[in-house]
């Protein structure tokens, strides 16, 4: 299989979709396995080893849920031709199996040989696949955190992903400027607006509904946030209502939590210049359901 064909296979994995609901189970399992391969482990990985790691990844980088199911992608990824089980006769990959079943039967999984062979021959391909998975499923603010969590180092060599695969949906290059202008070039939460001479520093345009989930590059789907509040917003530490009220997660704690988040809870953030630029309720509802973690403080 050629590198472009393999990248295309990863790019076109079948993820569960329902009205914008996020399902990062397969992408996170792929990234976790790529980390193992980069460290030299191309053999079967026991489910008992994958389960706690993947569950933590789903908690940290997936939508907030009452329960998390690392068992689902462990069998379902085989339907994409990208996963091999050590006991295939025990598993019908069209059905669901509990974690208890997978543990009791000592199931293990890995990428099949048509995947691992080119990865062994060209470690650069690991980086290309990882970048494709990250770009399709997570905002830029979370990429390094996810890489650190799965133990992947993408700084080894320059990437070839852009020339090997079809491009991801393009972003509007004017989105950042239109959002910063709408919020008068300051963070909507804390008012941060520092310049070095004429250069605006660490002020970013945040999508409310992520670009990866089909969120459009328009004013009603954006907020001007400093780099810190952008990261906190994308991690689900706080959300914003359509009336521009900031709601902070009840799971936020630690040094700095009071200054950066808790003192803003329930208060209005800075409004944009025009009422027409207020967040669209469809996008704020998506952020609450798919990004925000925990419950509301107020």
From TrEMBL:
The keyword Nuclease applies. GO terms for molecular function: endonuclease activity. Residues 5-153 form the ScoMcrA-like DNA sulfur-binding domain. Keywords: Endonuclease, Hydrolase, Nuclease. It holds the Pfam family DNA-SBD_ScoMcrA. Residues 187-240 form the HNH nuclease domain. This is Restriction endonuclease. It comes from Pontibacter mangrovi.
């Amino acid at each position: 299989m050629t590198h472009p064909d393999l990248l295309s296979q990863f790019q076109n994995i079948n993820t569960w979709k329902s009205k914008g609901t996020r399902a990062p189970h397969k992408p996170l399992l792929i990234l976790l396995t790529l980390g193992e391969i980069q460290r030299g482990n191309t053999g079967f990985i026991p489910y008992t080893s994958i389960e706690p790691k993947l569950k933590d990844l789903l908690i940290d980088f997936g939508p907030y849920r009452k329960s998390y199911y690392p068992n689902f992608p462990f069998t379902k990824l085989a339907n994409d031709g990208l996963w091999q089980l050590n006991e295939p006769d025990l598993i019908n990959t069209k059905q669901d199996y509990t974690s208890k079943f997978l543990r009791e039967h000592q199931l293990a999984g890995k990428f099949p040989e048509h995947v691992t062979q080119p990865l062994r021959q060209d470690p650069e391909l690991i980086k290309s696949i990882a970048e494709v998975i990250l770009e399709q499923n997570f905002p830029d603010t979370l990429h390094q955190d996810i890489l650190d969590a799965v133990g992947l180092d993408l700084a080894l060599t320059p990437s070839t992903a852009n020339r090997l695969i079809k491009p991801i949906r393009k972003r509007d290059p004017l989105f950042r400027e239109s959002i910063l202008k709408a919020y008068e070039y300051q963070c909507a939460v804390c008012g941060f607006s520092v310049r070095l001479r004429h250069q605006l520093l660490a002020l970013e345009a945040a999508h409310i509904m992520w670009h990866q989930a089909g969120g459009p590059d328009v004013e009603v789907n954006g907020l001007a946030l400093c780099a810190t509040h952008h990261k906190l917003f994308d991690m689900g530490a706080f959300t914003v209502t359509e009336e521009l009220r900031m709601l902070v997660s009840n799971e936020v704690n630690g040094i700095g939590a009071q200054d950066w988040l808790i003192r803003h809870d329930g208060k209005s953030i800075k409004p944009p210049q025009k009422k027409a630029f207020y967040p669209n309720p469809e996008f704020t509802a998506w952020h609450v359901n798919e990004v925000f973690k925990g419950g509301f403080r107020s």
